[in-house]
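Person: I keep going back and forth on a fold encoding question. Show me how you would write down a chain together with its backbone fold. Please set it down just below, with no commentary around it:
Helper:
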Amino acid sequence: MSTVLLRQVPVDSPVHRLWAGTKMVGAFLISLLLMLWPSWPVLGVMIAFLIAIGVVARLPLGTLPRLPWWFWGLIAAGALVNLPMGGAAVLRYAQVVVFGFVLVTASFLIAWTTPMGEVAPALARLGAPLRKLKVPVDEWAVVVALTLRGLPLLLEEIRVLRAARRLRPKERLLDRATDSPLIDILTAAMAVASRRATELGEAITARGGTGELTAHPATPTRRDAVALAVVLLACAGAVVVDLLV
């Protein structure tokens, strides 16, 4: 799959200027609606709403992922498995697939319009009420920040490993049958993740703790309230459309 993962698309738009917490709350409201009301009209309205957000965010078409053929083959295989149980089962399967696509698209919209450095401070601010219950909100936010910072590096190292495997000389048929590139990639990914986690832990210990997530944390403004109102109106409109259809 060739796409921009966990990186902000460098354009200026009203969606980019929103607070990261507002986008996460909006995605949560959409997912909550789809969990409670996963009908086709609601899914259609949410798809149109996400497309409108992408247009307002001025995201180029090249940002969209180009999924490999085997991904669509697996989806088709799932439909064939449900086919003997009748058309209703296939429709329900398609509904679940579309539901998953909507949630993944909402998550990608957050990643494409938000600097990853703003996600962890927003999570810490949203989880501030949990501090009264002695929940380690700041520590969790630091873990999220370090994970988001390390994932692009991990993906890049996996790409380098795959490219290096392609440059290896051709092996015999027997060796090729017993050699699994997936195992090598997963082993390398686990080794890299463990090494980076150890290095980050030593660095945090040397600094004396987690410290501040950011020197100048962003805060919600009036436009964030307007954006949440638009999301609520879209969710309410989807329910109304479903009741009228």
User: Anything to note?
Assistant: Residues 12-124+218-242 form one domain.
